[in-house]
Amino acid sequence: MNTSNISPSDAPSLLLVDDDETFCHVLSQALGKRGFEVTVANNVDEAVIVAEQNLPEFAVVDLNMPGPSGLVLVDRLKTLDAHTRIVVLTGYASVATAVEAIKLGATHYLSKPADADDVVEAFYKEEGDSNTPVTTKPMSINRVEWEHIQKVLVDCDGNISAAARQLNMHRRTLQRKLQKRPLKQ
């Protein structure tokens, strides 16, 4: 969609939620240049307040933030307005969180780094791509561990203590593992 000729009053509203303020500033500027009226929030609680006051047509939601995860926000935004188009954008991508984000109503799920053009394209992507390459290379043991931790964490509704108990691991060890970015493969 070309939004460059839309007047500010007609610009679609977009809620950008990420705890990285510098990233928000840069992406907000880029999305504004693409015709969106951008509002920024830096955590889920702040984003819910903003969304309840002015329902966004579009949202970009980071997955991993202090406090509730972006999955909680995806669910809340869809409850407020089922038509909101949501892109989950994260540096902590996993199969488990991608599946949950889509089940909760996200339009698309992107791994960082992604630019404004990637985000805008994801908003309007209506169907899957059967030409997406399927890798024949198995995941590394570190990636398998990351995926398993993410699945258990989702099963425990994001409760780190409960997930640590299920994984038979100390809570602090799990927290350290979650702070590391996952390996690509």
Task: Present the secondary structure layout.
Blueprint: E1 13-17, H1 21-33, E2 37-41, H2 44-53, E3 58-62, H3 70-80, E4 85-90, H4 95-104, E5 108-111, H5 116-123, H6 141-155, H7 160-166, H8 171-179
Helix pairs in contact: 2-3, 3-4, 4-6, 6-7, 7-8
Keywords:
alpha/beta; Arc Repressor Mutant, subunit A; globular; Rossmann fold; 185 residues
Give a short summary of the structure.
The protein is of the alpha/beta class and 185 residues long. The protein has helices spanning 21-33, 44-53, 70-80, 95-104, 116-123, 141-155, 160-166, 171-179; strands at residues 13-17, 37-41, 58-62, 85-90, 108-111. The chain is built from 8 helices and 5 strands.
Task: Report on this structure.
This protein has about 180 residues and is of the alpha/beta class. It has two domains: about 10-125, Rossmann fold, CATH 3.40.50; about 140-180, Orthogonal Bundle (Arc Repressor Mutant, subunit A), CATH 1.10.10.60. Helix content is about 45%, strand content about 15%. The protein contains eight helices and five strands. The protein has helices at about 20-35, 45-55, 70-80, 95-105, 115-125, 140-155, 160-165, 170-180, and strands spanning about 15, 35-40, 60, 85-90, 110. Strands 2-1-3-4-5 form a five-stranded parallel β-sheet, with helices on both faces. α1 links the parallel β1 and β2 (about 35-40). α6 (about 140-155) packs across α7 (about 160-165) and α7 crosses α8 (about 170-180). The longest helix is centred in the last third of the chain and has 15 residues, at about 140-155.
